[in-house]
Amino acid sequence: NAGVTQTPKFQVLKTGQSMTLQCAQDMNHEYMSWYRQDPGMGLRLIHYSVGAGITDQGEVPNGYNVSRSTTEDFPLRLLSAAPSQTSVYFCASSQTPSTGNIYGYTFGSGTRLTVV
Amino acid sequence: DAKTTQPTSMDCAEGRAANLPCNHSTISGNEYVYWYRQIHSQGPQYIIHGLKNNETNEMASLIITEDRKSSTLILPHATLRDTAVYYCIVRMDSSYKLIFGSGTRLLVRP
């Protein structure tokens, strides 16, 4: 099925460990982004990419790295996990917005990360 | 992007219309109003968007005031499955970023 696929669905890390959250989409969307959602809160934008080779910071980028080597994939890396990064992480993609051609975003089902 | 204000929570009876308001008094001429919802802990789901005119699709209707400073999302016949957090977001037509606020938690009562 077409859409945004996130792996893993659940992960427990120890403080200081590193890991990569995977995100892949098969809709040929130019735009991809990562959000985190803490309990009872709205989503906050971490990083986003407007195309292969182009990334930029969102609202809460500290502690996270991203890269975009292909249109399909947009991995999120935690270099040294901290308990404050315990959250649910969502990846989203969209077609390139342009005047008169605005589309909604497609979100993945999320990765639930616990840092102990 | 303009800021939005929504009530923290609302409820309605199953089968009745749910009307969710959103204030966006600082909206500019090229900013669209988007609505998303998040059911339980799933990823947000796109509902509808609009610029000036009222919009309707299979999920909902969007009513935007003439001055564009507020809007209302209407679920015409709410069901229990519509219980969710609903987010109203304002976004420029050339902007990639989608910035979420706190949303409205809608509870549909049996």
Keywords:
heterodimer, A: 116 residues, mainly beta, 4-stranded antiparallel beta sheet, 48% strand, B: 110 residues, 5-stranded mixed beta sheet
The helix content of chain A is under 10%
SS strand fraction of chain B = over 45%
- Structural category of chain B: mainly beta
Name the helix and strand elements of chain B from N-terminus to C-terminus, one letter apiece: EEEEEEEEE
Q: Report the strand count of chain B.
A: 9
Q: Main interface pair? A: A-B, 30 and 24 residues
Net shape of chain B? globular
Cα-atom Rg of chain B, whole angstroms?
13 Å
The multimeric state of the shown protein is heterodimer
Head-to-tail CA distance between termini of chain A: 34 Å
Low-confidence stretches of chain B: none
Q: Kindly report the spatial arrangement of strands forming the biggest sheet of chain B.
A: 1-9-8-3-4
Structural class of chain A: mainly beta
N-to-C SSE series of chain A?
EEEEEEEEEEE
Low-confidence stretches of chain A: none
The helical percent of chain B reads: under 10%
Biggest beta-sheet profile of chain B? 5 strands, mixed
